[in-house]
Amino acid sequence: MTRSSVTTPPPDAVRPGPLPGGPAPGSPLGPHYSRCFGCGDDHPTGLHLTATTPDGITVQARFVVGESHQGAPGLAHGGVLAAAMDEVIGMSVWLFRKPYVTGRLETDYLRPVPVGTELYLRAWCNGMSGRKAYLEAEGRIGSADGPVAVRAAALFIEVGMEHFVEHGGQAIIDEHHEYEVNP
Ligand SMILES: CCCCC/C=C\C/C=C\C/C=C\C/C=C\CCCC(=O)SCCNC(=O)CCNC(=O)[C@H](O)C(C)(C)COP(=O)(O)OP(=O)(O)OC[C@H]1O[C@@H](n2cnc3c(N)ncnc32)[C@H](O)[C@@H]1OP(=O)(O)O
């Protein structure tokens, strides 16, 4: 992965372990928001990405590239593939049960991805330091050990839950009763 210093963990970064009470290894991870472009069941043309965690610290996910995900004819749009990387990385940092947003996302495109391809994604955390999380993901064609089509590295920044209410409205809170914004 070609990456900048911004997405490279500093020497003091700590790689997190599984969270006590977090999702059990092997358990499916549901959508974080029903109308999310990446994972929402109610999004008409979204990725409808489905995911599990094999170990409580990484995420494995899949989606099928559809007609509405094209850029060049018959091929996935690069921005859609970046969105898939963003989504699976977001799912992986949520395993640690603190809200984060993407600060920077870097993407390498290695192979074209035709419509109809099942893309197998994996994301993991390389380290955390203060509010910053350094994460990585890859997407493989056709199977979990298929050829790598996309790689990504990201810097995510921890925010308060009020970030989503202040900038996006109440909808996220309605779907996340585990949080109270004004306890
Ligand atoms: C989206 C999820 C919503 C749901 C949340 C609810 C529950 C969660 C449940 C499930 C989640 C599961 C899955 C999620 C799946 C997908 C997630 C997709 C994620 C996204 O798609 S999310 C949308 C795109 N994203 C944004 O919409 C961010 C816009 N942005 C901002 O809102 C601010 O910009 C913010 C908050 C980032 C920082 O603002 P701030 O004022 O809090 O802090 P500040 O600026 O001081 O930055 C602190 C330190 O980070 C460094 N830093 C910041 N940004 C940097 C950058 N770009 N490059 C290099 N360094 C950067 C500074 O340099 C400083 O570093 P230092 O401390 O060393 O000085």
Chain-wise SSE layout:
Blueprint: E1 28-29, E2 50-52, E3 58-64, H1 78-94, E4 100-109, E5 118-129, E6 132-141, E7 148-158, H2 162-168, H3 171-174
Antiparallel strand pairs: 1-2, 2-3, 3-5, 4-7, 5-6, 6-7
Ligand 3IX binds next to helix 1, strand 4 and strand 7.
Radius of gyration of CA atoms, rounded to a whole number: 16 Å
What is the CATH homology-level superfamily?
Answer: Hotdog Thioesterase
CATH topology title: Thiol Ester Dehydrase, Chain A
Q: What's the level 1 CATH class?
A: Alpha Beta
- Number of strand segments: 7
- pLDDT averaged over residues: 94
* Low-pLDDT segments: none
| Tally of helical segments | 3
Strand order of the largest sheet: 1-2-3-5-6-7-4
User: Approximately what portion of the residues adopt beta-strand conformation?
Assistant: 25-35%
- CATH architecture verdict: Roll
Report the principal-axis shape. Answer: globular
The ordered H/E elements are EEEHEEEEHH
State the share of residues found in helices, binned by percent: 10-25%
InterPro entries: HotDog_dom_sf, THEM4/THEM5_acyl-CoA_thioest, Thioestr_dom
Pfam families: 4HBT (PF03061)
Membrane topology: Peripheral membrane protein
Catalytic activity: (5Z,8Z,11Z,14Z)-eicosatetraenoyl-CoA + H2O = (5Z,8Z,11Z,14Z)-eicosatetraenoate + CoA + H(+); tetradecanoyl-CoA + H2O = tetradecanoate + CoA + H(+); dodecanoyl-CoA + H2O = dodecanoate + CoA + H(+); octanoyl-CoA + H2O = octanoate + CoA + H(+)
